[in-house]
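Components:
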Amino acid sequence: MATSVLSVKDLTVSFDGYKVVDNLSFDIGQNELRVIIGPNGAGKTTVLDLISGKTKPTAGSVKFNGREIMGVSENRIVKLGLGRKFQTPSIFEDLTVLENLEISFPRGRDVFGAFFFTRDDEVVNRINEVANIIYLEEELETDAASLSHGQKQWLEIGMLLMQDPKLMMLDEPVAGMTLNEREQTAKLLNKICQGRSVIVIEHDMNFVKQIAQTVTVLHQGSVLSEGEMGDVQKDPKVIEVYLGH
Amino acid sequence: MNKILKGDTKYHFLVLAVLLLVIFPTFLDVFRLNLVGKYLTFAFVAVGLVICWGAGGILSLGQGVFFGVGGYLMAMHLKLEAAKADIGCTRELQETGVCIVQSTPGIPDFMDWASMTEIPLFWGFSHSLILTIIMILTVPAIIAFFFGYVMFRNRVGGVYFAIITQSTAALLSILIIGNAGYIGGFNGITDLRTLKGWDIRTDDAKFYIYFATVICLLIVLLIAQIILNSKLGRVTVALRGQEDRVRFTGYSVTAFKTAAFCFAAFAAGIGGAFFTMNVGFIHANFVGVVASIEMVIFCAVGGRFSIYGAVYGALIVNAAKTLFSEAYPELWLFAMGLIFVGVVLAFQKGVAGFYSDVIEPRFRSSKASK
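Structure:
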């Protein structure tokens, strides 16, 4: 697996003795779009928390481009090229769309760098480019607080795009979206996974079918099944977990 | 200048500058002007709090610590100078009231009263005015840096941070009161007379000190405005609502919170130094819990999202305090409590919010209809 961008090995975390993630191992390849699905409480979001450094694991290792990132602080992991979107849209509501995107531009990220940061052509061009991709080019001066729920989700994806990460992790990007918005988001995802790897956590099976290349099914903190969407759906173990006895 | 003060902020700044530099000095006598000068020293703290609390969402209930550090540093220098005047004082001269005879001449009076015979080491830098000014500008920020770094690194925030800062204020005031010989104790540092030989107690001096206070306040306002205009200010605002998002955008939340806290401390320290200059003494009461909470109230009443509002907040609440406590001394604390509750319930954005949400739109619409 020389081409794997992210390599998770024997990852375990327990809260009060309960193993939420149990000996989990998987690899994400270059330019791969991987969907992680699984029933409630399977540990999907916790896996993202572990990879992005928000939660410290009990055991195991996560290598990003061959470099161990367990124990590295969140902001350093981001600087290595790993972006993460939260389940509920977390954007800066007190700022405009433009300012939200600008903050995400990967320059001047220390205190003095931020103080002397200037909005030059490079920044403006990049903001316009990203705003175009996330369907918000008309809303640049709008306060982020007054965007619709779906637009907020897109804005957060846009904020990740500004950083041009090598690996993007999206936690339920279509949660709370209208049908129309879902379709646009599917298009958006297919566009942004060019040239980078993407992990998507999703509940909505119809949406998963639209975007998925490879699917990993999590159950009780471990991998239950992995493979092409069609194969996974036929897997009796998966059917049992999803449909019950 | 036009680059710093864009749009409306230019008028806010100019109106304030005219009010403080022209209108007050023209219409107020020296006594009242000196009082305004004292109120303005609290405005420094309030402006700092706008950056730290209003923008960054970090509520510090311990700004009195930094105000006190600035004030005491200034007082220590002035006290050493005052003490030198008593060297060679004789009984005959004391009768005329020029100086006081001490058992150890040349040391501050309260040290003499506590039977100390030499000036403690930590007073060493205070002999020099230049070092004193440097310390006033740096020591509060340095304290805030270490304090903030430890707190924010360990993800101490919100109410817990407020409580810890508050207890720090209590701690420092107790420390000062308990060490009468070293730092003046419960009496504070009083009887400050001259700065480099210039008598600060005269009406003329008070007039000049008032202007120095105003000019420094305007400079601090400009610095705050530059910060708010920069990406540093926007990241600070971003911190208020979505700390995690800031972290996962690649910023060190610890560093940005510490920076905001340091600025608040820096501003408060300058305010403290000018307090000593305006009032002529410093006391542990201005370090403690009550003073620290009052400073937050000045900021809240003025509007914690507006640096200009904060200045008006300090002026209005302090002026109300003076007028009200002249008439009904025992009722003042209740009145201030009411003001605070009223602001929290009805005007969360304070005076500045009332202006921008209620007065300005009417003004705009009446202008548009013409």
